[in-house]
From TrEMBL:
<keyword id="KW-1133">Transmembrane helix</keyword>
<feature type="transmembrane region" description="Helical">
    <location>
        <begin position="82"/>
        <end position="100"/>
    </location>
</feature>
<feature type="transmembrane region" description="Helical">
    <location>
        <begin position="283"/>
        <end position="300"/>
    </location>
</feature>
<dbReference type="InterPro" id="IPR001958">
    <property type="entry name" value="Tet-R_TetA/multi-R_MdtG-like"/>
</dbReference>
<keyword id="KW-1003">Cell membrane</keyword>
<keyword id="KW-0472">Membrane</keyword>
<keyword id="KW-0812">Transmembrane</keyword>
<feature type="transmembrane region" description="Helical">
    <location>
        <begin position="140"/>
        <end position="165"/>
    </location>
</feature>
<dbReference type="Pfam" id="PF07690">
    <property type="entry name" value="MFS_1"/>
</dbReference>
<feature type="transmembrane region" description="Helical">
    <location>
        <begin position="171"/>
        <end position="190"/>
    </location>
</feature>
<feature type="domain" description="Major facilitator superfamily (MFS) profile">
    <location>
        <begin position="11"/>
        <end position="398"/>
    </location>
</feature>
<feature type="transmembrane region" description="Helical">
    <location>
        <begin position="12"/>
        <end position="36"/>
    </location>
</feature>
<dbReference type="InterPro" id="IPR036259">
    <property type="entry name" value="MFS_trans_sf"/>
</dbReference>
<feature type="transmembrane region" description="Helical">
    <location>
        <begin position="106"/>
        <end position="128"/>
    </location>
</feature>
<feature type="transmembrane region" description="Helical">
    <location>
        <begin position="376"/>
        <end position="394"/>
    </location>
</feature>
<keyword id="KW-0813">Transport</keyword>
<feature type="transmembrane region" description="Helical">
    <location>
        <begin position="48"/>
        <end position="70"/>
    </location>
</feature>
Amino acid sequence: MKGALEGWRRNLAVLWLGTFIAGMGFSEVMPFLSLYVGQMGDFSKGELTIYSGITYAVTFFVVAVVSPLWGKLADRRSRKLMLLRSSLGMAIVIGLMGFVHNIWILILLCFLQGLCAGYIPNASALIATETPKESSGTAIGILTTGYVSGNLIGPILGGILAQVFSIRLTFIITGVLLLIVFVLSLTLVHENFKPATDAPVKHQGSLLSQFKNPTLIITLLVSTMIIQMGNNSITPIISLYVKELMHNVGPITVVAGIIAALPGISTLLSAPRLGQLGDSRGTDRILVFGFVFAILMYFPQGFVSSIWTLGLLRFMIGISDGALFPTVQTLLSKNTPQALTGTIFSWNQSFQAMGSMLGSLLGGLVSNWFNYNGVFIFTALSLLLNFIVVLIFIPSMRHPLARKNQKMRV
């Protein structure tokens, strides 16, 4: 038993570092992708906007389509194999981006980047299957801080690298970092893999029919999409909103960067603690808290007149993210047969990618129709609707205390 515990803790430590580097590597190049597109040719403003949109969207689109396929393969061939596929593939593709001079080759590489995605959900799936159930919430909460902190540091590091060296060299450095992730995963991650057989699938029919509560699974996946849609609807306009609040005076880019980083900081601080609370007091209660807290924090952001107030509210949003994302993953893992864990975590990534696409599109449309304020109100209303759906289709959420007592009896 002691050896098993040491095994899952070692996996958690290695995969935390792996997801940190993967999150950092991805986020340190994405903010500058539009600038890089501008180096691919002499484009007009309209052409640059279209090409930039395609390069961003194609990766998320491919991730949404292929993630379930990779997840199914993970359950049949092992999650560690998918970690190796993703880290090595991303290292090669992102490294090659530093050598291209044609927009269509860049778009092709972004397409291949989507095909190679999946390190973080497979790391989550491996941790979920290799960790004792009573500690899964804590472990997933800790793992969440890995890629959240990587995403937090990535843009800062990427900006420094791009300024000191160049955007091209930043892609190459990122490829090297991801190659390190591949080596760490290959040599230090251990998985007691039990492949899913085809026989049960043939008898049980569709994927959802293999779950005790398919409605709960669908509701959680849709929740992942809406939560991510809310986060991404803010991303395209946050710097413009900061500029408006500062009346176009002062270090706008620096302040915008800090405001954008604040949710990641609070998620980093809160996710492990909220994961522990979920294990001890009931995961349902943490999910209810996350929704209510997020709704209450998003609404006033559309009416602030001070940059300090916006910063405080953005910091609070990170706490709700620390409750929502890990808790949804924990509920998925606890309500999924072990043989399908990789499949369902990849479906979760697929829905998260769809949320990223929808958030970027809807955020731009809403801000065009109702100004920046409307984006925050739209996000709050979306989460409110999501919360109502959760309460309707997951009855235990209406009685989280009863759920806790039931868990303690089990």
